[in-house]
Amino acid sequence: MRFTPKRFARLGLLIFSCIVLYIIVNVGRHKSNLDTFSNDDTNEQLGPMLLIDDFETPEKHKISRSGPGEGGEPVETKPAEESKKQEAYSEYGFNQLVSDRISLERSIKDTRHDECKKRKYPVDLPKASVVIVFHNEGWSTLLRTVHTVLLRSPAHLLQEIVMVDDFSSKEHLKKKLEDYTTKLGKIKIVRTTERVGLIKARVIGADNSIGEIIIFLDAHCEANKGWLPPLLERIALDPHTAVCPTIDFIDHNTFQYKPMDPYIRGTFNWRFDYKERSLTPEMMARRKDATQPVKSPVMAGGLFGINRLYFKELGQYDPGMYIWGGEQYEISFKLWQCGGQLENIPCSRVGHVYRHHVPYTYPKHDATLVNFRRVAEVWMDEYKEWLYDRRPDLKSVDPGDISDRIALRNRLKCKSFRWYLENVANDTVKTAYEPLRANGAIRNPASNLCIDSMGRRSGNVGLQACHGQQGNQAFQYTYIKEFRFDETCFDVHDYVSGAKVDLFPCHEMKGNQEFEYTKDKKIRHLTSGMCLSAAGHNDYPVMETCSSSADQIWELTMSDMSDIPPLYRKFMSMKKHLAIFILTALGENYITPKVCPDRAPFKDDSGEFTSPGSPKGYLNNTRCTWDFEVAPLAKVQIIFKDFDVEPSKDCAYYDYIKVTENCDGSWKAVTSPAYPTKQTFCGNLTVFNVTSNCGRVRVEFKSDDSMTGWGFNASYKIIRDKQAPKITCLGRDCNDTQYEIAENDVQIDCRAEGYPPAQFYWTKHGGSLPFNKRIEFNGTLRLPKIKESDTGTYECYANNSQGSAKKTVVLHVYERCTCPKVIKTNWYSLPPYMNEQNIDKSIFKQLLEEIFSKCCGNCSNGHGPSTIDFGNGAMKNSLVEVKDSLAAPDTISFPIPGKKDDTEYQNSFKFLSIVSSPGIAFIVVNDEPGTSARAVFKSVLGGWPVLLLTMIMALLSGMIMWALDTWNNPDEFPRSFIKGTGEGFWWAFVTMTTVGYGDRSPRGYFARIFAIIWVLVGIVITSIFTGVVTTSLTAITLSTETSLYGTTVIAIQNSTEYKFGLNKNAKVTGAINLEEVANRLKKREFKGALVDTYVAGEVKDFDDPSLRVSKIIDYDSHYGIVFGDESGAPLAKSKFQTCMADYVSETKADIFKRVESLTKPLEKPKDSEAVEKSSGLFDADSELFKSSVYTCLGMLLFLAACGIIWDYGYMRHWRGHSELDNLEMINGPKYELAKVNMDVMDSLMEEVQLFYNNWNRRLDDMLLRHEEEKTMVSKYNTK
Fold first, then answer.
1. Which CATH number fits domain 1044-1115: 3.30.70.100, 3.40.190.10, 3.10.180.10, 3.30.710.10?
2. What confidence category does residue 620 fall into, taking pLDDT thresholds of 50, 70 and 90?
3. CB neighbours of 758 closer than 8 A, spacing ≥ 6?
4. Can you tell me the distance from the alpha carbon of 1155 to that of 71, in angstroms, rounded to the nearest whole number?
5. Under CATH, what is the fold of the domain 60-74+81-371?
6. From start to end residue, where is composition biased (Basic and acidic residues) (predicted)?
7. What would the pLDDT profile of 1210-1237 be if each residue is shown by its tens digit?
């Protein structure tokens, strides 16, 4: 090799770099301030202590159950349900269809560390109020949160659950929710009058709580075992501590419950993206035990607990923030800076459903931006500019009035944000300022398109119309020539024309992430020499050969670089970048490796493998494993070459290689003869080898987030010693006795160790092997469709060139029984079909025992007769709960409603009808006493217009009669208008009613003609009024049937009656059980109830005088059983089910008689509803009737008393005085004077009458002469 000046320069640079590297390695690593951020526990005691298992919770009294999702297992939807699934996602953001199938109190795995289960907690802890905010939440997810909190919380520590409804619009979250939660107890529902968002709603919940401690939970959580005491203990020890449970993951599609790492801390980057960091090995090593809290710079936000008074002292949440977003930063910064602290509690576990998307919109579209701006302005001091540098869109947002928040910070004497970064978040947040060359959109002027991340963190970038809103189009061009989006960078793997630009985690090692923005506005990839192009205005940019094309011109918003020192990154992260510095000096560039190799375990006799990215170097935060699985007696020798891994003192915490073997069931480290004390390897080592003691080996490679190296090359070979075979395993589970069931396909394993590999053959003692047997090369004997006659002793032989071995196994083949030994049941109480009070008298119990005895047989050569287990948690509370457990194996579910000819249930399970019902009883509530009488009274009052018209016409006819007859009949119709009209009204009214007393009658001709007309009119008017009353009576008595159409009725949820009501267009509400049906019907919440006739006759709740049977509806209603097994299971086989169906068909008459003897079906009432209603018009039990009778009797007695008092009091006294006065008058002078006066009066009356008669005669004569004179004058004038 010829040394040129350039090569000498590079060699000198390399030597200098090695010296610097030696100094840095020996000086030691930078030590962060984490020592001040310790996880010290406390030894304080708060009184008597108990294990979590000893706390009294409702879950301790729950019976274990089976069903969808139990144990936190996933629940899958079928392809046919895809449309319903998508509807659920659209409405709720997760698979509500699956959630509704899972029990509200499903069991989940206890995901706590074993040490948490052994730790004791104080009994007397402060009580907690759990605040749950919801807006249009799904029914089952919301109530599962409530149920699991009640189920798994010690009752004496749970003060209440405060549910805050943030103006939900869904009907199931209104009265239905209130009625449901009332039964649970300890629940308070608070509703907002407008949409206020999560932040303000939580404040409302806190204000309405009374517990000493507040626990905030989201509305789609599941509390795990022992979740509450660990949280309360920490706050009880220090009221200025806020605590967060470990948040486990619940899959939004399958609702699978998955445990998460409890040893993490929350943090953020300078775009305000929430991040989580695992504890470093150093921090884990300093921890005393697994139960210690982990102090966290930032909380996740949704789930945490805090002392209620301290929460109020801290100003609660910022009232100027909207909806949600950023509140976790505000409360976290405030806690740390103002004297509090934040801890994650590993021993408290709460599962959380992470939505696929947010299913609702926000009233304020820029809510999160406003919240971020308020947090930055109030709490981040000068560091807010770092945030604005990465998020320039925040600068244009109006934060609103923040004076009260600043005053709060001053009043609490809070520390600076610099203190927070240096003492709390120093190891999780970058605290060195990194200025940018450019920040903002990358625009191609020719197409007016901008590069867009497309909302991804991996994959290729795209091209979209420039929108100027930052977001997905906000990129940073750094001083090491990266184009950065959050923590990902532009990365080019393929150096060909048309290559896409990917987003890949930034490694700050140049290579394929180094781009130059040239003076002529091109973006040139330095490693490939190609330029970024809009590529004919496609939907993504590509790399092309650099040219003058307008597609390669890009506009960036450049930063002012005049004040930035050109070596601003000098010595910053020097150890991490020193290798890159050396590579650059030697003219090499780093190429980003793809991923760790993903391959099956090595099984060949020899081969090679390398670290990812070798020989160019490996990435930070990389974990790779290589597995070897060969013969147990073999050994694996691994030879490492070109070994360069970041050095450290113990090779334990930074980058390292570790080789382990599993020879006895546990993994143990394998050392190297060259380094016998090392269990892990790092640094720059010479060639060394590691040899295992067995054939199961694993090589692990790990790198941390700092300095890297070139990696390693390795080769391996399998070392085997020749030896005779030794049979190490024979039979299932290596047991020398194997039990099987006839007709199964059976394999008997025979495993032998030895080299060369053994050859195998089998024999059967006392007979020959089955003709269809098959012996595989690995020694396995396969016997398809075995029979009971195949029972016997089988012997395996293993031979090789070094020797042979043999061993026997006993095979027992039992009869294949038609049914399992124990047939499990899944039922609910529905008398008389199944009656929990008298289960032996239940129809289904008697019939099923008889039917299964016939079809299952004795199975004497198997497990014996089958038994049906009706206990051990088989009974459920409702049909809905029974349906949740239909799929349980070896289980039958009943009584399930269906139709006579149904053979399938829910398109998934086999159904067999057993019992037919005589029909559906429509039970209604009797009218309250006096209802009919009140209706009549109202109808009479309702006829007031006719009555008023009658009175007016009678008065009018009286006036007309007076005018027509007063001259002819002045005695009966006086000529005075008032007196005459009154007499006329009396005549008209009695004539109209056809009473006709005769005391008034017309005399004149015209008056009599009018009287005839009025009589006819009166008949019509009277008939109209009478008709109104009669029609009302008829309508009341003839309204005999309540129609189902549009009527509000109640029935058992999802029962036959429920579906029947829906088919008849009734407004049906589902109930959980019959007791609820009867009680709500008696409360008159519904017009009627639909109940099976047998059931209604059996349940005493319906034997109530306030209820009556309206009608018995003839309907094809049957009850049967559902087989829960999948195809192939004993109870699902067609032969068994055919047996059952045939037996039911053949014994139909006997079954009917059996049912008839066990039931008392409800009968129709003897009298029709019309008869009952007509007889009830004047019901003696009616309050109206009673009040009328009592009023009349009272008035009768009062008037009778008044009459008696009149007769025997005043009138008797008055008669005595009158008689005495008359007697004195007769005997005295007054009598004579009165007699004279009477005589004078009679004489005067005669004179007056004589004068009247003479005057009338003279008047007639004068009128006659006047007429004669008029006639004469008329004749005279004519002449």
1. 3.40.190.10
2. confident
3. 725, 752, 779, 798, 799, 800, 805
4. 40
5. Spore Coat Polysaccharide Biosynthesis Protein SpsA; Chain A (3.90.550)
6. 75-87
7. 666 666 565 556 555 555 666 677 677 7
